[in-house]
Amino acid sequence: MEESRIRESTRVMTDLAYEHYLLPQQVLARYPATRVAEIDYRELTAQPRATIEKAYAALGIDMTPRMSAYLAAEDARARKHETSHQYSLAEFGLEDQGNPAPAGAAVRTLRLGRRHRSARRRPR
User: Fold this and answer.
1) How far is it, in rounded angstroms, from Cα 19 to Cα 16?
2) Helix%, strand%, coil% for the chain, nearest 5
3) What is the pTM of this model?
4) Average pLDDT of span 56-60
Protein backbone atom coordinates (compact mmCIF):
# COMPACT_ATOMS: atom_id res chain seq x y z
CA MET A 1 0.00 0.00 0.00
CA GLU A 2 1.24 3.50 -0.76
CA GLU A 3 2.67 5.53 2.11
CA SER A 4 0.25 8.40 1.40
CA ARG A 5 -2.77 6.07 1.67
CA ILE A 6 -1.51 4.65 4.94
CA ARG A 7 -0.99 8.17 6.31
CA GLU A 8 -4.48 9.25 5.21
CA SER A 9 -6.08 6.11 6.69
CA THR A 10 -4.29 6.75 9.99
CA ARG A 11 -5.51 10.35 10.02
CA VAL A 12 -9.12 9.29 9.37
CA MET A 13 -9.02 6.63 12.11
CA THR A 14 -7.48 9.14 14.51
CA ASP A 15 -10.16 11.73 13.76
CA LEU A 16 -12.87 9.12 14.34
CA ALA A 17 -11.33 8.13 17.66
CA TYR A 18 -11.21 11.75 18.78
CA GLU A 19 -14.79 12.35 17.66
CA HIS A 20 -15.83 9.45 19.89
CA TYR A 21 -14.01 11.13 22.76
CA LEU A 22 -15.38 14.62 22.14
CA LEU A 23 -19.03 13.76 21.46
CA PRO A 24 -19.86 12.68 25.03
CA GLN A 25 -18.21 15.87 26.32
CA GLN A 26 -20.34 17.96 23.97
CA VAL A 27 -23.53 16.18 25.04
CA LEU A 28 -22.68 16.45 28.75
CA ALA A 29 -22.02 20.18 28.33
CA ARG A 30 -25.72 20.56 27.51
CA TYR A 31 -26.62 18.98 30.87
CA PRO A 32 -24.50 20.78 33.47
CA ALA A 33 -26.36 19.18 36.39
CA THR A 34 -25.15 15.72 35.35
CA ARG A 35 -22.33 14.47 37.55
CA VAL A 36 -19.24 13.49 35.63
CA ALA A 37 -15.94 11.90 36.59
CA GLU A 38 -13.29 12.04 33.91
CA ILE A 39 -10.42 9.63 34.51
CA ASP A 40 -7.01 9.99 32.90
CA TYR A 41 -5.63 6.52 32.21
CA ARG A 42 -2.12 7.63 33.15
CA GLU A 43 -3.35 8.74 36.58
CA LEU A 44 -5.40 5.57 36.97
CA THR A 45 -2.39 3.33 36.33
CA ALA A 46 0.00 5.42 38.44
CA GLN A 47 -2.34 6.09 41.40
CA PRO A 48 -5.38 3.80 41.18
CA ARG A 49 -6.69 4.46 44.68
CA ALA A 50 -6.49 8.25 44.59
CA THR A 51 -7.94 8.37 41.07
CA ILE A 52 -10.94 6.19 41.86
CA GLU A 53 -11.55 7.92 45.21
CA LYS A 54 -11.63 11.22 43.32
CA ALA A 55 -14.11 9.78 40.81
CA TYR A 56 -16.34 8.39 43.57
CA ALA A 57 -16.34 11.79 45.28
CA ALA A 58 -17.19 13.60 42.03
CA LEU A 59 -20.11 11.21 41.47
CA GLY A 60 -21.29 11.34 45.08
CA ILE A 61 -20.80 7.61 45.60
CA ASP A 62 -19.79 6.14 48.96
CA MET A 63 -16.89 3.72 48.77
CA THR A 64 -17.34 0.37 50.47
CA PRO A 65 -14.58 -1.03 52.69
CA ARG A 66 -14.18 -3.90 50.23
CA MET A 67 -13.56 -1.49 47.33
CA SER A 68 -11.16 0.55 49.45
CA ALA A 69 -9.14 -2.59 50.27
CA TYR A 70 -9.08 -3.60 46.61
CA LEU A 71 -7.79 -0.16 45.60
CA ALA A 72 -5.10 -0.28 48.30
CA ALA A 73 -3.85 -3.56 46.80
CA GLU A 74 -3.91 -2.06 43.29
CA ASP A 75 -1.97 0.97 44.54
CA ALA A 76 0.72 -1.31 45.97
CA ARG A 77 0.89 -3.22 42.69
CA ALA A 78 1.16 0.02 40.67
CA ARG A 79 4.08 1.22 42.80
CA LYS A 80 6.02 -1.93 41.88
CA HIS A 81 5.48 -1.55 38.13
CA GLU A 82 8.41 -0.30 36.08
CA THR A 83 8.50 0.66 32.43
CA SER A 84 10.84 2.46 30.12
CA HIS A 85 8.25 2.74 27.35
CA GLN A 86 7.81 6.31 26.19
CA TYR A 87 5.96 7.84 23.30
CA SER A 88 5.15 11.20 21.88
CA LEU A 89 2.26 12.44 19.79
CA ALA A 90 4.69 13.46 17.06
CA GLU A 91 5.56 9.79 16.54
CA PHE A 92 1.97 9.29 15.42
CA GLY A 93 1.58 12.54 13.52
CA LEU A 94 -0.63 14.00 16.25
CA GLU A 95 1.12 17.18 17.28
CA ASP A 96 -1.31 19.85 18.46
CA GLN A 97 -0.34 22.54 15.96
CA GLY A 98 -1.78 21.99 12.53
CA ASN A 99 -4.07 19.13 13.48
CA PRO A 100 -7.40 19.28 11.73
CA ALA A 101 -10.52 19.19 13.87
CA PRO A 102 -11.44 17.09 15.73
CA ALA A 103 -7.95 15.76 16.45
CA GLY A 104 -6.51 19.18 17.29
CA ALA A 105 -9.38 19.98 19.65
CA ALA A 106 -9.05 16.64 21.42
CA VAL A 107 -5.29 16.99 21.77
CA ARG A 108 -5.82 20.39 23.41
CA THR A 109 -8.68 19.08 25.58
CA LEU A 110 -6.64 16.10 26.76
CA ARG A 111 -3.45 18.17 27.25
CA LEU A 112 -1.53 15.62 25.20
CA GLY A 113 1.03 17.92 23.63
CA ARG A 114 3.85 16.70 25.86
CA ARG A 115 5.83 13.48 25.98
CA HIS A 116 4.34 10.76 28.18
CA ARG A 117 5.44 7.62 29.93
CA SER A 118 2.94 4.81 29.94
CA ALA A 119 3.31 4.32 33.70
CA ARG A 120 5.24 5.68 36.61
CA ARG A 121 8.89 4.66 36.80
CA ARG A 122 10.36 3.48 40.02
CA PRO A 123 13.01 5.92 41.33
CA ARG A 124 16.55 4.62 41.07
Assistant:
1) 5
2) 60, 5, 40
3) 0.55
4) 93
